[in-house]
Amino acid sequence: MKYVGIKSCKEKRKAASRGGKLITVKTEDLIAGDCKRHLDYLEGNYRTYIIFHQNNGKSDEWIKKRMADFDALIESIKANGFDYSKGFIRVGESGVRVDGSHRASICHHLGIDTLQCLEVKMRLSSGIQKHLEEQRRAYC
Question: Between 101-109 and 60-80, two packed helices, what is the crossing angle to 10 degrees?
Fold first, then answer.
């Protein structure tokens, strides 16, 4: 199954704190078009990443901090691999990537083929279900 990200919402916040069952997922299935800005960043093209956050009202200071955090995460995964003690990437049964777009993009970029993920149950409102379908049409 190809997973896509969805906008922040109540359902996503609830799912981000839930346990679930461990499944093995190909990193290529964790990234979709909504991860393009992360993949561009990993290739040294920071522009799409910066523009995305500017368009979402983030300050230059916030963006610089976010980029520094992303750089630190890249170095950590390069040096140590995926650190499950810091948390699993959570995915929903419906194809939602609840979290982990940065981590999945880094792992894919570094050639890590699969990750253990937590599959969580999610109830999606009709509005979020519609958003998920739009995301799937756009990116899958």
Answer: 50
Residues 6+ apart with CB under 8 A from 23: 91, 116, 117, 118, 119
How many Å apart are CA 9 and CA 125, to the nearest integer?
10
Tell me what percent of the residues of the chain surpass a pLDDT of 90: 69
Between CA 26 and CA 90 the distance in angstroms is 13
Strands 4-5 and 96-97: parallel
109-127 burial, b at 16+ Cβ within 10 Å, e below that, comes to: beeeeebebbbbebebeee
pTM beyond 0.85: the answer is yes
As a whole number, the mean pLDDT across the chain is 93
Alpha carbon 110 to chain centroid distance?
16
In contact, 124 and 11? CB cutoff 8 Å: yes
- Dmax of the chain from CA atoms? 42
Average pLDDT over residues 93-119: 95
Sequence length of the chain is 140
Give tens-digit pLDDT for 17-37: 888 999 999 999 999 877 899
